[in-house]
Design goal:
Helix content of chain B: 25-40%
Largest sheet of chain A: 6 strands, antiparallel, barrel
Number of strands of chain A: 21
Oligomer: heterodimer
CATH class of the largest domain in chain A: Alpha Beta
CATH architecture of chain B: 3-Layer(aba) Sandwich
CATH class of chain B: Alpha Beta
Strand order of the largest sheet of chain A: 16-17-18-19-20-21
CATH superfamily of chain B: P-loop containing nucleotide triphosphate hydrolases
CATH topology of the largest domain in chain A: Alpha-Beta Plaits
Chain lengths: 501, 237
């Protein structure tokens, strides 16, 4: 399939972005300025300012002198960048492969996608009209390569240029050399030699061109012509399984959204089933009519491709999507870490969690957070707190399972962090009583010490601990330990670590 | 009107039984203690699926924890489902400790069958429990926290009646007198005799209230746990 790239250039982006953010459409002409060495200089202008002869780099005072009615505001390059990224995300409704291109451009890989919108011309027109609605001046071009499309968007005479497949070289020939994204100094070097247009370069033999001007010029030329690769790195890696729904009339009702979701889930499930796959992570993106978008992600512990379960998982969270002024497009994706769906085991496994339990765990986890629903695992370590771990429940992967010897006895519960306690010692040197949470425990029994040495091969190895199993007069049993201090003069510190049943 | 048919009678019995749910007349049998002295007092002859049971931790130690694990062990074994859902606030991990894997072995429980839900707010604990009670693959659902509000207890009790999953609430604070639960227990540590085996598990168990039984309560027993047989044993105290 031939590659087709749509490039978008927003020549007055920072100024128009500022105006849209302020909600002040009638502020024109408008220029943004930034403090620079020697005073404020314009950093961006809108169309009106450009038409009266203002340009970025001009001192603010001079600009005011040229056009006293100029509206000027301080620029914010970071906000420009963030807004461009958001615009790229919004363009995800047209193509999964969207990347920003410079400070004021976007590139969409629309290979094989344009038919969804009625062809390339229709897609370009839809996109341009939406951007005009947002208040942005846009120039766009569709060509076979990212380089050519970018160059055409910036330098072609028309606001929208559609280069038919294979026509890239001819379309590029008339453009100035700067359209190849070569450094300005290089373009200035070429100009006195009569090499003003890309066509002039294409006619020259490659060898002398490379030896005179370096490899980068040829490389850019090759990229634009498609003989050198130029991938588009999307902001989000597109998911292999996607289902989208477009609404003629933007939807706002929670019921409408829920009703629209189910067919999407069914289509995605069918796609997954067709390839014998299951999804582990699902994203729902809602493209709102005002150009913003809402995202919702749901993870599951076992690969999933059941539309009903998917519907239930999303059902309780669909309300989190704020419809704003209405949702135009819903996109449901199964994200990249897609595994083969669990096949039926050869032998029935009584220990494995069934579908109901998996669904329960998934629901709780999506509501409370992944780390909040856990399973307890036992490991081979003699350090008490390393002998067990809490892991996200029911996730595939290694399941350490160690039979733990019954002796020496271990407590039924272990404090997350050992709690410091105050201990008085008997004449024999063992603990006689301790104070914990403002209660004194007079001990009638203390068994120990059981010395637990640190794991010396670990970098964070601490000092060894002496554990005692102690029982107070009421029969309450605790696990306490003494840790010698690093300084000989200091008294050893005591901690309560666990509770016996 | 003629003589009521057998089918009609059976239907009536079924409907009355449905009205009396929670009193043990249900399809899933209750899990008996295995101690006739205690089982005789309980509706259905045991702590059942189909009802909420409150356990009050009297002393700030692991006694109630151990008793609950012993019950889990009997539940899981009795209904042949290993999974247990344990719902609590995340901060309990420091207050009363995390279920410690190596220490669970003596209760005949595989640690990985405990699913621990650590919520941020008490309402989330209750919601997780309620969902758990509807999941037929679980053997038991335990909630842990401060005293259970009456209405919350009522909701859990209603949910537990319809499912087949045992519901327990481990009280970390003195409970209010009113409760919707089927029974309320208190667990206390027992001082081991000086010459006794150190690892022997025994608790002082008090039955404070029990649906359908109002006289002769509270009752007290001293019970021990025998890990090998997964059974309780009455001890004289």
């Amino acid at each position: 399939m031939a590659r087709r790239i749509l490039a978008l250039w927003l020549p007055y982006w920072p100024a128009e972005r500022w105006r849209r953010a302020q909600g002040a459409r009638d502020l024109a002409p408008l220029a943004l300025y930034l403090p620079q060495a020697g005073g404020f200089r314009l950093s961006a202008v809108d169309r009106g300012a450009a038409e009266v002869g203002l340009y970025p780099g001009l001192a603010l005072a001079d600009a005011r002198a040229i056009w006293p009615e100029l509206h000027a505001a301080c620029g914010d390059p970071r906000a420009d960048e963030a807004a461009l990224a958001a615009l790229a995300d919004w363009c995800g409704r047209y193509s999964p492969w969207v990347a920003t291109d410079g400070a004021a451009g976007l590139r969409l890989d629309i290979s094989g996608l344009a038919y969804l919108f009625g062809g390339e011309a229709a897609l370009a027109e839809i996109l341009a009209r939406r951007l005009v609605d947002f208040g942005f001046t846009a120039r766009l071009a569709v060509a076979d390569t990212p380089g050519a499309a970018s160059g055409l968007a910036r330098f072609a005479a028309a606001e929208a240029t559609l280069v038919p497949p294979g026509g890239t070289a001819a379309a590029l020939a008339a453009l100035p050399v700067a359209a190849l994204r070569v450094p300005e100094a290089l373009a200035a070097e070429l100009e006195p030699l009569g090499l003003r247009r890309i066509g002039d370069l294409m006619r020259l033999p490659r060898g002398p061109l490379a030896s005179r001007f370096g490899p980068s010029l040829l490389y850019r030329l090759d990229q634009a012509l498609g003989s050198a690769p130029e991938p588009i790195s999307p902001r989000f890696p597109p998911a292999p399984f996607r289902a989208r729904a477009t609404f003629g009339e933007p939807i706002r009702d929670p019921e409408q959204i829920a009703a629209a979701f189910q067919p999407l889930a069914e289509r995605l499930a069918a796609m997954l089933a067709a390839e014998e796959r299951g999804g582990r992570k699902f994203h729902l993106t809602a493209y709102r009519s005002d150009g913003t978008l809402g995202r919702l992600s749901v993870g599951v512990s076992r690969p999933l491709r059941d539309a009903k379960r998917l519907g239930r998982l999303f059902a309780e969270r669909l309300g989190e999507i704020d419809p704003g002024f209405g949702i135009e497009v819903l996109l449901l994706e199964a994200a990249a870490d897609v595994l083969r769906a669990a096949e039926a085991p050869l032998l029935p496994q009584p220990e494995a969690a069934g579908e109901n339990l998996t669904a329960l765990v998934d629901r709780l986890r999506n509501r409370l957070g992944r780390g909040r629903v856990s399973q307890i695992f036992v490991h081979d370590s003699h350090i008490p707190e390393r002998a067990f771990s809490l892991r996200p429940a029911l996730e595939d992967g290694a399941r350490p399972k160690t039979a733990w010897p019954p002796r020496p006895p271990r407590p039924v519960s272990l404090l997350r962090r050992p709690a410091p306690i105050h201990v008085t010692l008997s004449a024999a040197g063992g603990p006689e009583s301790f104070r914990w949470r403002r209660l004194d425990h007079l001990l009638v029994r203390s068994i120990g010490p059981e010395r637990i040495a640190p794991e010396w091969w670990r970098e964070d190895a601490e000092r060894s601990r002496d554990y005692y199993r102690v029982e107070d007069r009421a029969g309450r049993r605790f696990w306490i330990y003494r840790q010698s201090s690093s300084r000989r003069a200091d008294a050893p510190a005591w901690y309560l670590h666990g509770l016996f049943a | 009107m003629g003589v009521p048919s057998a089918a009609l009678l059976a239907d009536l019995r079924r409907r009355i039984g449905a009205l009396e749910r929670g009193c043990g007349r249900s399809a899933t049998p209750a899990i008996a203690f295995g101690l006739p002295a205690i089982d005789a007092l309980l509706p259905g002859g045991g702590l059942g699926a189909h009802g909420l049971h409150e356990i009050v931790a009297a002393s700030g130690d692991g006694a109630a924890f151990g008793f609950v694990l012993a019950l889990f062990s009997r539940f899981a074994h009795g209904v042949r489902r290993p999974w247990i859902l344990w719902c609590r606030l995340g901060r309990e991990g420091q207050e009363s400790g995390l279920p410690y894997g190596p220490g669970l072995a003596r209760f005949g429980l595989a640690p990985e069958h405990l699913i621990l839900v650590e919520a941020e707010r008490p309402a989330e604990v209750l919601a997780a429990m309620e969902e758990g009670l509807r999941c037929p693959e679980l053997a038991a659902v335990l909630g842990e926290g401060a005293a259970l509000p009456f209405v919350a207890g009522l909701r859990l009790q209603r949910t537990a009646e319809t499912g087949g999953v045992a519901a327990l609430w481990l009280n970390r604070a003195p409970p209010p007198p009113a409760s919707a639960a089927v029974s309320r227990w208190q667990v206390q540590a027992v001082a081991a005799p000086p010459e006794g085996v150190e690892e022997a598990l025994s608790w002082q168990l008090t039955l404070w209230r029990c649906r359908g039984k109002n006289e002769n309560l509270p009752c007290q027993w001293r019970i021990g746990w025998r890990a090998e047989e997964r059974s309780f044993a009455l001890q004289d105290g």
